[in-house]
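Running this now, will post back.
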Amino acid sequence: MNSTDITSTGKAPIVLIHGLWMTPKSWDTWAERFRAKGHEVVVPGWPGIDDRTVEDIRRNPEALKGIGLKQIADHYERIIRALPVKPIIMGHSFGGVITQMLADRGLGVAYVGVAPGQTAGVTALPLSTLWTGTPILANPFGRNGAKPLSKRHFHFTFGNDLPRAASDLLWEDYAVNSYNRVFFEGVTSVLNEKGGVTRVDYARTDRAPLLLIAGEIDHVVPPAIVRAIEKKYRSTGSPAIVERKEYAGRTHRLVSQDGWEEIADEALAWAVSHAAQPTASVA
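Update: finished.
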């Protein structure tokens, strides 16, 4: 890949990575806002989702079965290496896990994890986080399945700032089946820092700057997890930049909840300003 940091327009391209139970459509807000600011924005779907509609995936989720985190990370690596320059990489939820895995491969000029799940060795697991995975984890024989997300569970995981009826409307527009294997791999990696699928080198000194974003009332990735991720990176003494921001009153739906514009603008401004600083002393 060309090591140049920006395109001919003077702006870094941006790759957006969606999370579990979602499709690229979940990024429509940020993607359009970033394009309006002159950035090329690439929003690929996970393998099996690709550019399919929500309705089509619900009708036939077979392509989601058995796919794990390494396959997804490899999929994004191929897409990123085909770009003419290194991008800014942003990921939401499990997309934030993948973003950290790609950061460990040195594929971006800056990274933003929006309510990012923890990588291997980050052991914080609040009860609300465990509850979000209960429908999947309760059936170990369904490890390679693609379980639907109920409207009730969507309300707990994504719509907990809304009345149930309003949350159900969002479910209709956005929610798709799970990649069960992804959830199992994420959980089992927590206690396996050296051998877990999501392992990264927290001490890496040449990792481009990483921003971690948390929402105050997020049930899936509460602030305690994001703080634990930051602490894990900082505890190594690496000079690579890792910073954290928390937003009051925000749920796991940080990319589309009312007021998302503030978070999008601040995330982009941070990434652009730090993209030219691959390493620096930890504050």
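The first strand starts at residue 14 and ends at 17. More later if anyone needs it.
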